[in-house]
Amino acid sequence: MEGRLIRRYKRFLADIQLPEGVVTAACPNTGSLMGCCEPGSRVWLSESDSASRKYRHTWEIVEVGKVMVGINTGLPNKLVSEAIVEGVIGELSGYDTVRREVRYGEEASRVDFVLESPDREACYVEVKNVTAAATRGIALFPDCVSERGSRHLRELMRMKAQGIRTVQLYCVQRGDVKEVRPADGIDHEYGRTLREAIAAGVEVLAYRAKVGPDEIRLVERIPVRCP
Description:
Elements lengths: L1 E8 L3 E6 L2 E6 L15 E6 L9 E8 L2 E4 L5 H10 L11 E8 L4 E9 L2 E11 L1 E2 L4 E4 L5 H15 L3 E8 L6 E4 L5 H12 L3 E9 L4 E7 L5
Parallel strand pairs: 9-12, 11-13, 12-14
Antiparallel strand pairs: 1-2, 1-4, 2-3, 4-5, 5-6, 7-8, 8-9, 10-11, 14-15
Helix pairs in contact: 2-3
């Protein structure tokens, strides 16, 4: 359903003006939503009939300019899983099994996916959602300081040092960008760690999604650059 954003607050809540009145929706994004939470923006919500939910509505999409941006950080793992199965992410094809949310590493982490086959090495895949963008078609990650993001990169580097294939995958939920860059001005440590991870052999991929009210799906790879 479509509405207008009144305000986003307490990180996890947003007041939305619908034709029938104002509702409070869950905001499934812990980042700053830089550039994606201007009052008055057109937004789209999903609705749940679960009796256990405090807030029936979930904020899913915001219109930034003329571009729809998916803000739900719970969605990228689903998008990546579907794209692997459908062969969209060719770099991750050819594995027999996919395990999700696997505990690993030295810092009490969980990796999003472990891809496995009897005849090849396992592949550990960490997924990050990207919503922020600068000018000139550049997507940025993170949109706020992310110690968790740096921790995950450190864990991937340790796994790589053990001879295991590791991948950092950026799920870009907006169609107006042509590349992804670390947001050094927001989180210098993350940018430094990302460059260190690349030098250590961690594979870094970014896939851009086609975002619409009826469907969000990954469609194409875009480059990750660290100038």
